[in-house]
Amino acid sequence: MNSTHAIIEYFVAQGVPLETVSLLLVLPVIATMIAFFRQVLGMKAFGIYTPLIVTFAFLATGIKYGIALFVIVILVGMVSRVLLRKLRILYLPRVAITLTIVAFVILALLVAGGAMKRTGLAAVSIFPLLIMITLVEKFVATQIEKGNQTALILALETMIISAVGYYLASWEMLKEFIIVYPWAILLTLPINILLGKWTGLRLSEYLRFREVLKRIT
Question: What H or E segment, with its residue span, contains residue 138?
Fold first, then answer.
């Protein structure tokens, strides 16, 4: 650990795992990346918090199993909403039933993964699974408020941003840089201030209104 910053060495000496320190320091970078996707590219996703925690769920499960679980959770959420629509029950009980169905489906997948010797899937810890399961509530709420199409688009954007965040957080060069220069994380503050003052068109808006812009120019 000769190349690490003194403050990082102090944290580790106090019993904080180096991997935990690294991930916590990477978190502002991922959050800034999500803000960039929202403000400049126009990818809304499910806010900033959901892609952030899904990114860490991907880190825990691995990108392959993470995306598979993400897609399954969304599909089960869609099917459950269709099935429960006929019951005409209130929102919270409906979400509770949906979460129950998703939990059983994921449990069945874990058992199937173990039976097929997919140890990576069967050994997934509970916390990333809980993150994926609770994603259903956000999806169902968006379905009710904005419709299926918008909910699917936001889910897809969330998955894409989380996947980018996964590769960013897994980038060894970035993690090593942060461990050596942890103060560099403070640069995310002025970057976010600049993003907060962004008044130009987002990339998605350029694509949507490109014909109009051509006529104007």
Answer: helix 126-146
Output phi, psi for 62, to 5 deg.
95, 150
The 10s digit of each residue's pLDDT in 32-82 is 999 999 888 888 888 888 999 999 999 988 898 889 889 988 898 888 888
Q: Which helix (H) or strand (E) holds 94?
A: helix 91-115
Predicted confidence at residue 217, as pLDDT, reads 58
The total of other beta-carbon atoms located within 10 Å of residue 46's CB is 20
Query: What integer pLDDT is reported at residue 35 of this predicted model?
Result: 92
SS3 88: coil
Which residues make Cβ contacts (< 8 Å) with residue 4, sequence separation at least 6? 12, 179, 180
Sign of the C-alpha dihedral computed for residues 175, 171, 66 and 147 taken in this order: positive
Say how far apart CA 213 and CA 201 lie, in whole Å.
11
Rounded Cα distance, 203 and 46, in Å: 18
Low-confidence residues of the chain: pLDDT under 50: 1-2
How far is the C-alpha of 206 from the C-alpha of 41, rounded, in Å? 9
Burial class (CB in 10 A: 0-12, 13-18, 19+), 90: exposed
The whole-number pLDDT of residue 141 equals 85
Token pair recorded at residue 160: 């894409």
Sign of CA dihedral 89, 94, 96, 100: positive
Give me the residue spans of the domains in the chain. 6-216
Please give the Cα distance from 58 to 124 (Å, whole number). Answer: 11
Cα distance between residue 120 and residue 122, in whole Å: 6
